[in-house]
Amino acid sequence: MSEKYKVRDEEKIYFITFAVVQWVDVFTRCEYKDLVIDSLRFCQREKGLEIYAWCIMSNHLHLALGTAGILPLPDIIRDFKKYTSVTLVRAIAANPQESRKDWMLEIFKRTAETSNKHQKYQFWQNQYHPIELTDNIKQQRCLHYIHHNPVVAGMVSEPEQYVYSSAIDYAGGKGLLEIKFME
């Protein structure tokens, strides 16, 4: 990983993006997004992950994260990516309604063949480039960017209309994950 993109201060909040290899649109089905939500909940409960903002798009995931100090943030991210990679590939393979199954699994398999880190399938791109949100201005820009992704993509007209995002929490509602609010 580049020296520029590292988690240096465990007490800070970081903007992170995970993208599916070759930008495959996996998260068009709710059951796959729900697996990601369940994994994030587990990381919150068991590993001390603090989520300030999040949004699951069709082929990537944006997060503003911190840690309560139980585990270092890079370890939580590593474990999350490893677990969700296996779980999502299995869910795709086992889904009888998944018309894109063979195509997606072939992409994940071919991508793994070019990697020395992955054995059978590679789901996520390797990098996640944590960007430290050092002040309120950067935090507010990050919130706006994360929450407006579904609007820019034409999925909804207002950020809080998108279920798989923390925008509803910031609008005063109750979303799918526990959120630690930015000041």
Walk me through the structure.
This protein has one domain (14-170): Alpha-Beta Plaits. 40% of the residues lie in helices and 13% in strands. The chain has five helices and four strands, in the order E-H-E-E-H-H-E-H-H. Helix 1 packs antiparallel against helix 2 (73-94). It is globular, with a radius of gyration of 16 Å.
Question: Which short descriptors sum up this protein?
Answer:
4-stranded antiparallel β-sheet; about 40% helix; Alpha-Beta Plaits; alpha+beta; single chain; 5 helices; about 180 residues
Summarize the structure.
One of its GO terms (biological process) is DNA transposition. This protein has 183 residues and is α+β, with helices and mostly antiparallel strands.
The level 1 CATH classification is: Alpha Beta
Q: How would you characterize the largest beta sheet?
A: 4 strands, antiparallel
Q: What value does the average pLDDT take?
A: 93
CATH topology: Alpha-Beta Plaits
Rg of Cα set: 16 Å
Structure annotation, total helices? 5
Major sheet: arrangement of strands: 2-3-1-4
Name the helix and strand elements from N-terminus to C-terminus, one letter apiece: EHEEHHEHH
CATH hierarchy: architecture: 2-Layer Sandwich
Decide which structural class fits the backbone.
Answer: alpha+beta
Which ranges are low-confidence, i.e. pLDDT below 50, for 5 or more consecutive residues? none
